[in-house]
Specification:
Number of domains of chain C: 1
Structural class of chain B: alpha/beta
Chains: A alpha/beta (about 675), B alpha/beta (about 290), C mainly alpha (about 100)
Strand content of chain C: under 5%
Oligomer: heterotrimer
Order of helices and strands of chain C: HHHHH
Number of strands of chain C: 0
Number of helices of chain C: 5
Largest sheet of chain C: none
Chain lengths: ~675, ~290, ~100
């Protein structure tokens, strides 16, 4: 016979103001199986929990119903208290008298009657509850970080410094990401590479970090704590271990006219190249699509000239698999191209560039050694117009969101231009100036007040070429809204930040949610910003939404902290609310008929095949098996199963039907 | 090929040359044009500036009449007529309430939707026929001027690119010409302000003509009677605004195609222009020598 | 933009600076109502009478006529259909008048 205890909480006036708690407790006392029923002002308080624990011990309760607020609030509280008193946590249930009753109804008999119904339902369920133990899953203490930009680098260092192993996979031949392309960073105007390269080197040297560059993730199988990552290391056609980084091959390669991606097409690179001088690893890679040898079998100049004999034309891609316990997504962003703007010439005017191109012009190690020069004729522009919000905040023709970083980097660009070209005129067409970070607003003020940048609040309707210059037609809405025209030598568009190429495919590979702009989705926008809804996969940096360097670094450290938390124990405890396929003695073995409808219904890929074998290893039947590590307890398979062979622990069919019947 | 045909008021009067060239080219390409019976004026700018219902009713009558005459496709060479027909059809199709009101006003049922073609779409469709019948490649360098109504609003008209269209340029190249890159392809000519605000049309036209001349074009090619009128008939106002004389001629795209097909200039209405159409012969020879 | 023009007419707040433009449109639409198609000569004359710009473009007329671009008579089409449309539009706006 059950021995259930009922505890009706007043929750101050939240419940007691509408529901007559004493009456509810009285009614519960008369339910079959209930041996203890009280009401109290604040069950979640220390005295309230003490009441609970004492009753469990004194009355030898085997089930408890706390009729109070929503289980989302205090289920863990009361379950922990029950465990402390010696009762299994899963034999404690809550009836929600607040969100489901007192907060949505007026005071009256009907409301109290409903409260009594809610209590009775939970009592009937708890009578059928079985004790459950958390599931323990082993954890591999290696993290996989996808993306070698500043966010990936930070996350990798933090996780490795905490004593864990890290595998950092970067798609391009060097780590560093967009930050390595920047000239100076706001608001301090620190040289970007100067602050980045020490971190890059630290990653390369770190004994606990394995760095795979020019590599991509092919597959991710498994579940939290136990992922299996299949990584393709693309062939550089250079033996990295023998190459000594002398660079002779990159100077002598005869194929010279390939637009350099790192310099955003402002200069050319060769078919064998190192992306930039500070690249990590400092090893060249052969661009086989453009290499003469790979196109026609001739040349081989690099091979002949290589002092270390490190060229390997026959090198193949290497596919490796690694066991990892957690994944950090830090794949970064790209910027919208200037060809997306019909009013600004579809990207055909060489002197109309985007922010990244301007960074390369301004960069001391860039194609012009830091001089601001027009791409068309190399002359120094006397008038530069900067257009903010190009493509952002534009429902009609671009993206609806704000790209966050452009107001700041536009101010920075205008300042750098004015510092380098003293007599030059800089105009910024803006809609709003968003400079919300620390020292950010002061930075923009400096651009206006000290560096003489002219800010015009208005949009640019058209840019067109005329006699070697670009005519910019805009408006100054703060000075009456008269249309104005500026003849500019160069126009810089602060184009929208967008999701990285290949984000959608990667998210689908990892079963991570993403939004319509292909940014990866966090588990909760306010309270869980570094986790995804896929257990064990975390987010860092701009792959989630546009953000600047300090935020990316902060978030990367946050993701690293989550990973370290995950790795801090040798085993992972998971809620036992998982589905289980029944097993019976022979000859039935299981009510499962092997139709696997559950497998197609499961949103988490948690259903596997299990072969039931004879002692000789012959297969008798193949039935479904739930991987407790992946199962999230949604119950879809339970609803789908035709033979009711699968049941959800903690919410069994029997328990749920008992609740329904009790209404 | 058989096509419905809606010439519109200007092709009968002030842009008679356009009408003549359309019919001559259609004839040369073996296309039969069937005029929409008893067609009425589409209302042009005046209707939509003054009264919304009237502005929908007038083109709706044309569409309903065409549908009734089993003309599933209608060529409307005038860009303004084309625009009014397409926009009216789009708005009426989007609102059953509006459709009922319009049908009540025009006193005929709307009938099935009619596909309206502008002159550029029509010529694109005849691309193969044109290719096979070119007798004298039009070896000149021209500036293609699209005006406002052929490519805007892009969501409704859904034709070519709205900021830098290429369809007319492609047609010119197809018949042996070269086109220039210039910045006034879709700038407004002033349209119906030709009479009530002539100086404005002069100023706007001056920018367009000035840009075409600066881009070294031998002629401006248009696909709209209003644009032609404002750049050709109003040349005096343009010269006043520019402060100098400019003799760059303005041709309709159908006249360009017609010349390439070997049709005589008179049949194409070339002698009705205000600005004499004189294309440098040496340029033609130089061009054909270079190509 | 058209909405603003139509509203300005409806509540009678058209700027006097735009009276020429409205006069032109009225002349144009008057021609359509009467003839079903644009009678250019009639429209221009109507515009001149409404605005008083009697000599505007006077020099243009002979060159237009010489080029066959200005007909002396309106074109033929179904005038009653056009008149009917205008009448019904007017009736819907001012029922009872």
């Amino acid at each position: 016979m059950s021995r259930i205890g009922v505890f009706v909480c007043h929750c101050g006036e939240n419940i007691a103001g509408t529901v007559d708690c004493a009456v509810v407790a009285e009614a519960a006392r008369s339910l079959r199986g209930v041996v203890h029923s009280v009401d109290y002002k604040y069950m979640c308080s220390d005295p309230g929990q003490k009441l609970l624990k004492e009753a469990i011990r004194d009355k030898n309760l085997d089930g408890v119903v706390v009729a109070a607020c929503s289980p989302r609030m205090h289920e863990p509280t009361f379950r922990a208290a029950a465990e402390e008193a010696g009762l299994n946590a899963y034999q404690c249930e809550m009836a929600n008298l607040r969100e489901h009753c007192s907060w949505v109804h007026a005071k009256g008999e009907a409301t109290t009657a409903k409260a009594i119904d809610l209590v009775r339902i939970q009592v009937e369920k708890v009578k059928r509850n079985a004790p459950l133990r958390p599931i323990r899953v082993p954890v591999a203490r290696t993290a996989l970080v996808l993306g070698g930009g500043i966010a990936g680098i930070q996350a990798a260092l933090d996780i490795a410094n905490a004593g864990n192993q890290v595998i950092l996979v970067e798609r391009s031949p060097s780590i560093g990401g967009h930050m390595s392309q920047l000239s100076e960073t706001f608001p301090t105007l620190d040289c970007s590479q100067c602050i980045l390269t020490p971190r890059m080197v630290e990653v390369a040297r770190h004994p606990q970090i394995t760095l795979y560059t020019y590599a991509e993730l092919e597959r991710l199988d498994g579940f939290i704590g136990n992922f299996k990552a299949t990584i393709r290391k693309r062939a550089r056609k250079v033996d990295e271990k023998i190459c000594n980084g002398c660079g002779v091959c990159t100077q002598k390669c005869p194929v010279k006219k390939i637009p350099d991606e790192f310099n955003e097409g402002l200069s050319m690179r060769r078919a064998i190249y190192v992306p930039f001088p500070q690249a990590v690893p400092n090893r060249p890679v052969i661009d086989t699509a453009n290499c003469t040898f790979f196109k026609s079998g001739k040349c081989r100049a690099c091979e002949k000239l290589c002092t270390a004999k490190a060229i390997r034309f026959d090198q193949q891609d290497e596919v490796v698999t690694r066991e990892v316990g957690a994944v950090v997504l830090a794949t970064g962003f790209r910027t919208m191209g200037t060809n997306q703007f019909p009013e600004y010439g579809y990207g055909r005017y060489p002197d109309l560039i985007d922010g990244l191109k301007f960074e390369r012009l301004a960069s001391a190690s860039g194609p012009t050694s830091g001089a601001i020069k027009r791409p068309s004729d190399g002359k120094i522009p006397e008038t530069v117009v900067f257009i903010a919000c190009a493509g952002s905040r534009d429902e009609q023709k671009g993206v609806s969101y704000c790209s966050k970083i452009c107001c700041m980097y536009t101010a920075k660009h205008a300042m750098l231009y004015r510092h380098k070209v003293h007599g030059g005129k800089a105009y910024v067409f803006y809609m709003d100036v968003r400079a919300a970070g620390k020292n950010y607003d002061e930075f923009v003020r400096r651009a206006v007040e000290e560096d003489g940048v002219k800010y015009l609040r208005g949009r640019v309707s058209r840019v067109y070429p005329d006699k070697g210059q670009l005519v910019v037609k805009g408006v100054d809405t703060l000075l009456g809204g008269e249309p104005l025209e500026i003849r500019a030598d160069m126009v810089v568009l602060a184009t929208a930040v967008q999701a990285q190429h290949g984000s959608e495919e990667l998210a689908q590979k990892l079963h991570v949610a993403y939004d319509k702009y292909r940014f990866f989705a966090e588990a909760h926008p306010k309270l869980r910003p570094v986790e995804t809804n896929t257990a064990g996969i975390f987010l860092a940096g701009a792959c989630q939404s546009p953000r600047d360097i300090p935020e990316s670094v902060a978030q990367a450290s946050g993701a690293a902290a989550k990973v370290c938390g995950l790795f801090s124990r040798p085993e992972l405890a998971r809620e036992p609310i998982v589905a289980v396929v029944d097993r019976q003695p022979p000859p039935v073995f299981s009510h499962c008929v092997g139709c696997f409808l559950c497998r197609s219904a499961c949103p988490y890929q948690a259903i596997e095949e299990e072969a039931i074998r004879t002692r000789n290893g012959e297969i008798i039947r193949t039935v479904a098996h739930v991987n407790a590590g992946l199962c999230q307890g949604c119950g879809t398979c339970v609803a789908t199963c035709r033979t009711k062979a699968i049941d959800l622990q903690g919410f069994t069919n029997e328990q749920v039907f008992a609740e329904v019947v009790a209404i | 090929m058989r096509l419905g045909y809606y010439p519109g008021c200007s092709l009968l009067g002030s842009s008679r040359d356009f009408g003549e060239s359309v019919e001559a080219v259609a004839g040369a390409l073996g296309v039969e044009l069937f005029e929409v019976p008893r067609w009425n004026c589409c209302g042009a700018s005046s209707a939509h500036a003054m009264d919304r219902l009237l502005a929908l009713a007038l083109p709706a009558t044309v569409l309903a009449t065409a549908a009734r005459a089993n003309l599933g496709e209608v060529l409307a060479p005038c860009a303004s007529c084309y625009h009014r027909l397409v926009v009216a059809q789009h708005e009426i199709a989007g609102s059953p309430e509006l459709k009922r009101k319009v049908e009540q006003v025009i006193d005929i049922p709307m009938g099935p939707p009619v596909r309206v073609l502008n002159i550029l779409e029509f010529l694109e469709r005849c691309a193969d026929r044109i290719a096979s019948k070119v007798k004298q490649p039009f070896a000149h360098t021209v500036a293609c001027y699209y005006g406002c109504l052929l490519v805007r609003p892009s969501k409704i008209v859904a034709f070519d690119r709205s900021e830098d269209p290429v369809s007319m340029d492609r047609l010119v190249v197809q018949v042996g010409g070269k086109t220039v890159e210039w910045s006034s392809k879709t700038e407004c000519c002033g349209a119906a302000l030709s009479i009530p605000r002539t100086p404005v049309v002069g100023r706007l036209g001056a920018k367009i003509v000035g840009d075409a001349v600066a881009a070294n074009a031998e002629a401006i090619v248009v696909a709209c009677p209003m644009c032609h009128s404002n750049l050709d008939m109003r040349r005096v106002s343009i010269e006043e605004a520019l402060g100098r004389k400019v003799s760059i001629p303005v041709l309709f795209i159908t006249q360009v195609v017609g010349l390439a097909l070997g049709l005589p200039p008179r049949a194409l209405g070339l002698e009705r222009h205000f600005v004499e159409v004189k294309l440098p012969a040496e340029a033609a020879m130089r061009a054909s020598a270079a190509s | 933009m058209d909405f603003l023009r139509q509203e300005a007419l409806a509540v009678d707040t058209v700027s006097p600076d735009a009276s020429d433009i409205v006069a032109f449109h009225r002349a144009f639409l008057g021609s359509i109502e009467r003839h079903g198609r644009l009678f250019e000569l009639g429209t221009v004359l109507g515009y001149k009478l409404r605005t008083g710009h009697l000599l505007q473009d006077a020099a243009l007329a002979p060159s237009m006529i010489r080029r066959g671009k200005l007909g002396a008579l309106p074109h033929r089409t179904d005038r009653q259909a056009a008149a009917g449309i205008f009448a019904r539009v007017r009736a819907l706006k001012e029922p009872g008048k």
